């Protein structure tokens, strides 16, 4: 092998972290040219870079624009690597519907979670922002999704998340879906209170949470 | 709200502590800071927080040494716009409105510096694309006028933001009656949450319940 793959993945992570879209694309192409595992490059390269960017954001070294440019770079790399992921025959692709709850148009966080879920191998249907609770349920049914992912930034709209769960209960289909919630004012306490299946503090944690639920419930959902 | 509070004539037996506007964009850090100040405040009869639920920042705050009072509002938009009580803002009607005031501009002018930073590093195309993704939900800038020495400068900046957003620009006169009530009372139950020493403020107090 002409190149140390760990080194290449590190470079990929760095390119995402440093907001270098062209470099990310070039390195992703190299991964394919070297016949390396595309999935491994996503997990050990692109995702690592994005997680590092998220950390800098928490430390207030990066701000939202930087985070978005990092995610652009990651997405560009993903476009190249994704078609080369070897899917196993018995593997089921997990589907999620995602959106910002009714009354709220803040969608930066939702978009980051969407990208991270896609990077993590989920099939994500984006419902956009200002989405009525009933629409989440309708679309989840229509798309045969297993996950309903709801975001909000405002305290004035967070109760809409509650309504999503209420509708699932009323229709007696609550067990068919895992409901994940997140956003600025949301806490684990709120998730417990309304009976959501999980809360994640940021986009990277959202993917881990979804994966944990898949591992725990497998074919039940 | 520092300037707005300082403009109000106040009683002698009150101490004021102002929290840095840097926390405005980080509710969880704001909570930690508020709790720190509450914990270290000793020898008072009452602590009044001139805050609302503020993105969840007030959820879980503990009254450590004395009674704790906080307006029963989601944020200070309601405080500025509702003279009698803080609960009547019609946010549904105002979806897509970006509120600005003297105080908020201390942090929100970061929109202008964010834009400049990206513009210099990546050029206008990328800068506009990023700005659009961050703010294209906003159709209107509503500037709440509360006076203050720097208001002209701040209005100029807020208009610059409206231009960047390609949004409408409107101003509205802010009210100080509710701010006066926060400082001097009466702290009636309809408009204020009062918890005794050792009690905890919860999001349920602000009307956020599991149905």
TrEMBL record, chain A:
B12-binding domain location: 93-221
SMART domains: B12-binding_2
Pfam family, any one: B12-binding_2
Keyword terms: Cobalt, Metal-binding
SUPFAM superfamilies per the UniProt record, alphabetical: Cobalamin (vitamin B12)-binding domain, Methionine synthase domain
KW Disulfide bond (keyword) present: no
Top-level taxon of the source organism: Bacteria
Residues annotated as domain B12-binding N-terminal: 1-93
The protein's name: Cobalamin-binding protein
Source organism: Acetobacterium tundrae
